[in-house]
Structure formats: C-alpha cells, structure tokens
Amino acid sequence: GQQLNQSPQSMFIQEGEDVSMNCTSSSIFNTWLWYKQEPGEGPVLLIALYKAGELTSNGRLTAQFGITRKDSFLNISASIPSDVGIYFCAGPSYNTDKLIFGTGTRLQVFP
Amino acid sequence: AAGVIQSPRHLIKEKRETATLKCYPIPRHDTVYWYQQGPGQDPQFLISFYEKMQSDKGSIPDRFSAQQFSDYHSELNMSSLELGDSALYFCASSLGGYNEQFFGPGTRLTVL
After folding, report:
1. Which tens digits make up the pLDDT trace of B23-67?
2. Nearest CA distance, B12 vs chain A (angstrom)
3. Of the candidates A25, A87, A98, B28, which lies 20 to 30 Å from A78 by C-alpha distance?
4. Per-residue three-class SS string for chain B
C-alpha cells in the first residue's frame, strides 16, 4: 500500500536555527498536507499543497510540493521553543479522501 | 474560529465494556473522519462519513461502528473493549471530501 517516509526521524536543535524535514513516497500523491502534533493533542494543519512544484509559506514555515509528486519538504526558519512537537506529512490515499500519515519527525528545540 | 469538538476527552473503561465517542465537526463541514493513534504511532484511518452516508472504511474492527447524524455530528461506538483498544481517537472534519481535514483534540481511551 501507499506509505510516506519522513526524515529525519528526530531533530534536536538550538533556538534560532533553521529546520528542514522531508517526506517521500513510492507512489504519487495529488495533495500534501503538513501537520504539527503536540503531546496528547490533535494534529494541527500547518500547510496544504495541491500542485506539483507549489511553494507555500505560513509565517516562518515554508513547504514545497515536489515536481515528481512523490515528495514534499517543510522548512521552519528561526526556530523557537514552541515549535517543539511531531511534524507529520499526510496525503489522501489513492482515489479516496482518507489520509495516510508519514512516520513523523520529532522536533526538540533548546533555548 | 470554531474547531472540531470531541467528547469525552478522557475515558477509562474495563475490558468487555462499551464506549461511545462523540464528534462535532466544524460548522458547515459535511464530512467526518475517525482515526486511531497508538502510542508513538501515526494516526490510522478508521472510517468516514459524507452527508450522513459512510464514504470509506479502513482497518476498523467489527466491534466498532459509527454513524453520522442529521446535524452532522458523529458517534463512534466501541463494544467488547480490549486492552489493545487503548489509544487516542481523533475525529476530523472537512468541507466535502478530498479537502483539508481539521482534527479535534482527541479522546484518550484507556481500557483496563
């Protein structure tokens, strides 16, 4: 079945640093969604991407939809302690609207 | 802005008991999804409803059932609970299918 692999699995960075994480798949996705989840809470939608090559920003966050439609990346600039959490990429499974989630990237930011 | 509401937020049950989880979607959203997230795992799709009809089904056990009501709220009914059912259960909603899904805060179910 369709799978989404995220890397890195975890990141430990200092406040103020930039962060880059990516999501890859062996199959094509027509939509890429990036979510952030904090412990015990629901995933919060950060950015939605709908077209190959699309580059979209949301404050300090920037995400791109890969040209091959098999990957996407998320960048966070000038990280702050409240960026801590698990970042998931997600996309709708083929011909359905159920989301398949990536394996997640756990981000830890030290002051 | 109004978000997805889930109740209860926490639920503790014994094995073989039943549980009912409720979800109230964002106003005007017509599609509801249920996901299960085990510890350290990503959310796994269970079932979805569009305009009160089941639209898709994932790896949902036969012991679970769900429905969407006329006011678009949804309920997930879980019977004969097992220890392995302990997890976070999320509801998400969207306006139509194939669109951005917005998640609720989740219900943490603990089965003892």
Report:
1. 999 999 999 999 999 999 999 999 999 999 999 999 899 999 999
2. 15
3. A25
4. CCCCEEECCEEEECCCCCEEEEEECCCCCCEEEEEEECCCCCCEEEEEEECCEEEEECCCCCCEEEEECCCCCEEEEECCCCHHHCEEEEEEEECCCCCCCEECCCEEEEEC
